[in-house]
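Cross-posted from the bioinformatics board.
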Amino acid sequence: MLGYYFEAAGIPTTQISLVREHSVMIKPPRALWVSFELGRPLGIPNDAPFQTRVIEAALSLLDRTDGPVLEDYPEDVPASIATSEEDGWACPISLPSPPKAVDQDSDILDEIEFLKSWHDLAADRRGGTTLRSSRVTTEDAARFLAAWARGETPDSPVEGFSTVDMLRLASEDLKAYYAEAATAQPAHNGRDATSVQISDWFWGETQGGNLLLKLAAVCKQSDDRLIKIIGSALIVPYHQSHRQAVS
Amino acid sequence: MVRLTETFEGLANTLRGMETPANPDTPLIDGPPLANRRVAIISTAGLTRIGDRPFGMGGDEYRVIPTEAADDLMVTHLSTNFDRTGFALDTNVMFPLDRLNEMAAAGIIGSVADYHYSVMGATDPKDLKQSADQIAGLLKQDNVDAVLLVPV
C-alpha cells in the first residue's frame, strides 16, 4: 500500500516482502518475497555479501514498469543458521538463580548486574546499544515493571511518557538488554544461538522473562483498556504465550 | 518461510482484511539505470534515533533517519512477534544502509539519499497516507528516484 502512495507521487519503489500471501493480496508495485524470519528482512546478520545479494535482487525490479511485480527470491537462510533443532544451545552463563516469584526487586537487579559484562561486550562490538527507548536505566526500568507486576501502580517516571507508554517501552528495553547479552555469548559448536533459542532462554529461564510473564498477567486483569491490551498482546510474543509466570 | 497460518490469529486476520489498492495494474514509474539512481530506505519497523520520540500505539507519523545517525537506532515497533536479536547483532539486517553505501562506492547504484524514513508498520496503511505524501515531498527535494521499502 505504501508503495502506491510513492508511485502516485512520481517516485519509483521496490520492496522486500516477508509474508508472501500478504503481498499476493496487497499487490505492492514491485516486491521481492524472501523466505526469512520476521524481523530479519535482509536474512543474515553480519553477512554483508548475503544482504547485498538481497538488495540487488530487490532493486533490479525497478527495471519493470508492468506491475504489480512479485518475484520469489531463490536463496534461503541456511538451515544451520535458521533452525535450532540439531543441538541444544544453552546459555553459557549460569544465572544466580532460577526464576522465582517477583516479590522483591533484588532478584531481577542481581540478574541484570550478572549479565552486565556480556551486555556491555555486545554493545561495544555493535558500536552502541539498541535499548534506552524508555530513557531510564535498565535497573530503573526493571524496578518500575516489578512494581507493576506486584500489583502496585506507580506513575511513569519519565515526563512526556504516559504510564501505558512506559509499561511498553520499559518492557522492550528489558528484553533488548537480555537479547544483547545473549548475542555476545560464545558460539556453541561453531554456531551462534538462533533467535528461537535466545527467546526460549529469556522467557523460560530468566528472572527477566518471568517478571514480564507476571507483568503481562497482571496487566491483562486491568480495568484500563490500554493496559489490558498491553498485557494481552504487547509484552509476551505469541510463540511464548503458553508460559506461566513462577509465583 | 513465514506463512499466515503460522503467525498468530490477530495478525493473520489483519493481513487478510487489508484492501487491495484500487488500481494495482497502473503502469509503474520508470527511472534511469540503477547505476544512476539515488536510493532511500523506508522502513516500517518503527525505527527511531535513540533519544527521538518512540512510536506509540496507532502512530501515524514518520521519523527521519539521517545517514550519519544510522548506527544509533532503536526499534519501537509495537509488535512483540518478530525477532529483534538480529537487529541487536547487526542493524543492517533490518536497515541496510551500510550495504547501500558499499553499493554506491562500487558504482552499482548512483548514490545514497541523505535522509531515510521510518513509519510504524502496525498502523493501518490508510492512516499513513499523509505521512507518505510528506515523505514523498522530502524525497523529491533530496532527488531520490528509487525507494527501497523494507518491512519487519
